Amino acid sequence: MSATIIEVADLDVYYGTSQILFGVGLSVRQGETMALLGRNGAGKSTTMKAIMGLAPPRRGRISLRGAVISGQKPHHIARAGLGFVPEDRQIFPEHTVEDNLVIGRKKGPEGQDEWPIRRIYDVFPLLEPLRHRIAGRLSGGEQQMLAIARTLMGNPALLLLDEPSEGLAPIIVQRIGELLRQLRQLGATVLIAEQNMHFCLGLVSHATVIDKGQIVYAAGIDELKANDAIRRRYLAL
Ligand SMILES: Nc1ncnc2c1ncn2[C@@H]1O[C@H](COP(=O)(O)OP(=O)(O)OP(=O)(O)O)[C@@H](O)[C@H]1O
Predict the structure, then answer these.
(1) Distance from the alpha carbon of residue 41 to the mean position of ligand 1, in angstroms
(2) I need a labelling partner for 6 at 20 to 30 A (CA). Which of 35, 83, 219, 232 fits?
(3) Where are the transmembrane segments (predicted)?
(4) pLDDT of 128-145, one tens digit each?
């Protein structure tokens, strides 16, 4: 069995006095693509932010390849090997596509340099002809691709994507899905927070379902596909 990349255990997260996460736990192994599924407001983004140190947990532990990272500052966590694409993508809108990519370039925590710009353009062929375009003028789908590509330039051990399909036209969602399937084939380890289960089918290997800040189900994606009761109860499908 491959090594565990990230292990999240017993996380409690609060915003002010409101408790948002209740004992959240999940783990992702090397080469897995895991979906964190749940309805609007279930706690997906908060889980991602907690992992990145942006919503520090009041209780619980997060380890990256066995080393505890909870309690560290977000930039330390990023340097330790986590690459986060937030819901709002956070590209630099006034810079060109290529500048955005170059800004994201850094070696991985063990000196890996697996994503030189040439390889990025091979995997993201739509970005190459746009390289001199101002990022803020790209379409939503192009910006999402750029945000993923830029994060890969940092050679993360784990790529965290917060709702990559949100707000995009179905054809673009399909393209992003194909891209993520390709990353999976290349061996990337990915955690995707999504409301859109259909987007994740055929893309992820495992699924964890969150509801009202608690993990209510975790299994291989085929098991979830076969489990009508869970899908109806927590994913409204
Ligand atoms: N900054 C904040 N302050 C207070 N409450 C917040 C804050 N951000 C989120 N919440 C609340 O925390 C809960 C979980 O939100 P979260 O964004 O993690 O859900 P989500 O599953 O990612 O949903 P979405 O699809 O809407 O992003 C919601 O009830 C939300 O209203």
Answers:
(1) 5
(2) 232
(3) none
(4) 999 999 999 999 999 999
pTM of the model: 0.94
CA distance readout (Å), 129 to 90, 118, 169: 21, 13, 21
Query: Where would I find the H helices in the chain?
Result: 44-52, 74-80, 97-104, 117-123, 140-152, 170-185, 197-200, 221-226, 228-235
Ligand 1 site, residue 48, Cβ cutoff 6 A: no
| Protein residue whose Cα sits closest to atom 28 of ligand 1 | 41
Domains of the chain: 4-235 (3.40.50.300)
Asked if residues 84 and 162 have their Cβ atoms less than 8 Å apart, the reply is: yes
Is the shortest distance between the CB of 43 and ligand 1 below 6 Å? yes
pLDDT in tens, 154-187: 999 999 999 999 888 888 899 999 999 999 999 9
Q: What are phi and psi of 90, to 5 degrees?
A: 50, 50
* Residues 115-118: contacts with CB under 8 Å, at least 24 apart: 115/152, 115/153, 115/155, 117/153
pLDDT digits (tens, 9 = 90+) for 205-222: 999 999 999 999 999 999
Measured from the CB, is residue 38 less than 6 Å from ligand 1? Answer: yes
